[in-house]
Amino acid sequence: DDLWRYVAVYAVPTAEVQQRLLSVLLHDERIRALQHLPYSTVSYVWGAKYQQSNQWALETLAMAMDPAAVHTRAQAQAWLQLKGYAPSVLKIGALTRLGGRLGSANIAFDDHPGEKRFSDRIET
Questions:
Q1: Minimal CA–CA distance to 33: which of 5, 61, 1?
Q2: Helix H or strand E segment including 80
Q3: What DSSP letter does each residue of 9-27 carry, written as one string?
Q4: Does residue 24 lie in a domain region?
Q5: Which residues contact 5 (CB under 8 A, 6 or more apart)?
Q6: pLDDT tens digits for 61-90?
Q7: What is the pLDDT of residue 113?
Q8: Does some domain include residue 119?
Q9: Does 5 map to a domain?
Q10: How many domains in the chain?
Q11: Phi-psi group of 69: left, alpha or beta (phi > 0 → left; psi -120 to 50 → alpha; rest → beta)
């Protein structure tokens, strides 16, 4: 609602990644394996309390790329960290966090570590 500029990026996965993802996406059970409720738009990237859609996509990618080792969200997050994944860091002040939490059922910050949250660093 407050778009500053429009920037878009797309990347086409390699054929190998596409095949591995397809093997997951064609099976309802595998698609839902790492899906978690409740949902938070700004869930902590390395947390387990909430999940947002980008988290699910990345964790599912981890499962697709290493199906022998990744069966849980914690294993998927460990795989992502091992591969060097770094989340976006948003600078969101206390009043904005409070307003977001009060104004929307799908925004929660209580899963972010205190030292990061109280320094206005939201890793999502």
A1: 61
A2: helix 73-82
A3: ---PPPHHHHHHHHHHHT-
A4: yes
A5: none
A6: 999 999 999 999 999 999 999 999 999 898
A7: 94
A8: yes
A9: no
A10: 1
A11: alpha
